[in-house]
Amino acid sequence: MGLLRNIRIWTQKCLLDRGFLLERINRTQVIPTVIAAPELYRRPDDYSRLLKPWHDPAYSDVFTDEVTSNTMLSPMKLYYLHRFITQVRDLPGDVFEAGTGSGGSSRLLLNAVKKQSQHREMWLLDTFEGYQKVDAVRDGAHVQVNQCRCASFEDVHRLLQEPTVPVHLIKGLIPATLDEVKAVTFAFAHIDVNLHEPTLAAFEFCLQRLVLGGIIVFDDYGWPATYGARCAIDEVATKHGQNIIYLGEQAFLIKR
Ligand SMILES: C[S@@+](CC[C@H](N)C(=O)[O-])C[C@H]1O[C@@H](n2cnc3c(N)ncnc32)[C@H](O)[C@@H]1O
Question: Could you say which of 1.20.120.790, 3.40.50.620, 3.40.50.150, 3.40.630.40 is the CATH number of the domain covering 45-254?
Answer without folding.
Answer: 3.40.50.150
